[in-house]
C-alpha cells in the first residue's frame, strides 16, 4: 500500500532528474498495534483492582451478646465437609435438619423460602429471618464466602457468625453424613 | 451522449492524527499502569456476586493459604513506620538502607528473627525462597498480632485514618486458619473487614 511516486524520470536525453519520493508512509499497521496495546493497558489497569466483600463480626467484648431474637426467627446454618450444609430452624431438636448444597436450588431457595415464612409469621417485613452461620473445622474458606454471598443474594435482613459449634450440632451433622473426620 | 465517468477515490486515508492520538493514549496508560508484583504466596481467591472495589490506600492485606499467613500494607511511608515500631518492640535496629528496601516489599511471610536476612535478599532470591509465614499462634509469640497493631499505629500517625484490613484467603483453605486470623483481628476490636473475592455472575 505504500505509495511511491514513480512518475517522471526515464526521459531520453535531457537532464538526469532525481526521483521525487513521496513522504507518505502507510500507518495502518502501526495504528493497529497502538490500539491493541491501548486496549490491553486499559483493561489491565481497571481490572487489576481487587474486588472485595465486606463482613461484620459481632463485638467480642460486648457482654450483651444475647440478641432479643425469637428462636422461631433463627435459622442455624452449619458448614460441613465436602461443601455440604446442614441447617435447622429455631432451637436444635425442634425442627428436623435439612442437608443442602450450594447453588441456585440449594441453600438459596431455602433461605428465600424461610425468610418469606418468617415474615409471614411475624407479619412485619422488618422482622425477617436471622441466619446464624457456624463454620466447622472441616469447612473451607470458599464455603464461608459462598454462604455470605447467598445470604446477600437472598436478601436476608440479618446474619451472625458464630464460631462455637456445639457437640450436639457436630453429632447432627455426622448423622447426615456432612461431617467427616 | 458522453459517458459519465465515475471518479475513483483513493481508499487510503491519512492516519497521522489517529496514530498520534493512539500513541498518546498508549503512553498515558503505560505510565499510569503499575507493574504487578509477583505474589509471595499464590492463592486462588473465591468468587462472589456482591463485591465492591477496594480502596487504594490505607489498606492492609492478610494473605492466607497453606496454613500460612502473609502480611502486607499499602504505602511505603506506612511500611517504614511499621518496621520502625516492630524494631522497637523486638529490640532490633534497622538501618536506613534496610528500611528503604523493606518499603518495596509488597507482602511477606517470615518470622521477625529472619526478617533482616529476608530484607537483604534481592527479588529473585526472595521468589525462590518458600516463606514460612508469620507466626500467629496464640501465646507470647504472636507476631502477626504485633504487625497488625503496629501497622495500625503507623497508619493512624501518618495518615490519621484507621487502617482497613482485608483477608485474601485461598478457596481451599480450611476454616480454622481463617478463624485464627479473624480472632486476632477481633482481639483488637476490628469487627469490620473485607474479604477479597473475584466477581461472579448470579447463576
Automatic annotation (TrEMBL), chain A:
The chain crosses the membrane at residues 27-48. One of its GO terms (molecular function) is transmembrane transporter activity. GO terms for biological process: protein transport. GO terms for cellular component: plasma membrane. The keyword Transmembrane helix applies. Pfam families: ExbD. It is a single-pass membrane protein; Single-pass type II membrane protein. Keywords: Cell membrane, Membrane, Protein transport, Transmembrane, Transmembrane helix, Transport. It is found in: Cell membrane. PANTHER family: BIOPOLYMER TRANSPORT PROTEIN EXBD-RELATED (PTHR30558:SF3), EXBD MEMBRANE COMPONENT OF PMF-DRIVEN MACROMOLECULE IMPORT SYSTEM (PTHR30558). Belongs to the ExbD/TolR family. This is Biopolymer transporter ExbD. It comes from Pedobacter psychrophilus.
TrEMBL record, chain B:
It comes from Pedobacter psychrophilus. One of its GO terms (cellular component) is plasma membrane. Belongs to the ExbD/TolR family. It is found in: Cell membrane. This is Biopolymer transporter ExbD. One of its GO terms (molecular function) is transmembrane transporter activity. GO terms for biological process: protein transport. Keywords: Cell membrane, Membrane, Protein transport, Transmembrane, Transmembrane helix, Transport. It is a single-pass membrane protein; Single-pass type II membrane protein.
